[in-house]
Design goal:
about 240 residues
Length: about 240
Amino acid sequence: MEFEDDAYVLSARAHGEAGAIVELLTAHHGKYAAHVAGGASRKMRPFLQAGARTIARFRARVPDQLGSAQLEPVGEGPSALFDDALALAGLSAAAAVAAGALPEREPHPGAFLAFEALTSALMHTDIWPAVFVRFEAGLLQDLGFGLDLSKCAATGSTDDLVYVSPRTGRAVSRAAGEPFKDRLLPLPGFLLSSQSPLEPGDVGRGLDITAHFLEAFIFNPMNRPLPPARLWLVDRLADAGRL
């Protein structure tokens, strides 16, 4: 079994004296783990940080074998964010969520594209937290649990959509949701349209929505919590006044 693909590093851990087991999000083959010879070396370590872009050449003798990979770095990767600890926290959180949510060896090109869009946005301080929310929404969509924000679940109206049902992930209008608003999730406008301005509190509301559905549909069924890196990111954004 052999392939070459664009990939992002999701995680890496030392294996043996000099190697590393690296978890990759590939463009066309999904999430793959592979042994990287020399991955624990000082030379390779910077290229195995979470979020690093690579070209991965994977090889295994049989399909269910761990296999090995050669990685060719592409671009600066996380080093471009060394002066922005908050953006690095966002990149680490995204990698941890993708690593925890995606199944092994199952193609999810939408997840790759969502991750790619986020990494491109991290240089833009004012917008990347909202793009992070869109990344998680895109991940849910690619896994079959996408939000339906096209119309009100109760009336079919496309106007004044301000809530999300925590049970179905469908939008609810202000009028239809008023009697039940304490049980509904507030819907920020930027999730409805990229043209909507980002209002104070919108990022926090968006993160609440994606966290709810990531837990309900993906992590809780696996008896696992949201990754600590994701929880830490929310704390860091709160401390920075970015929610």
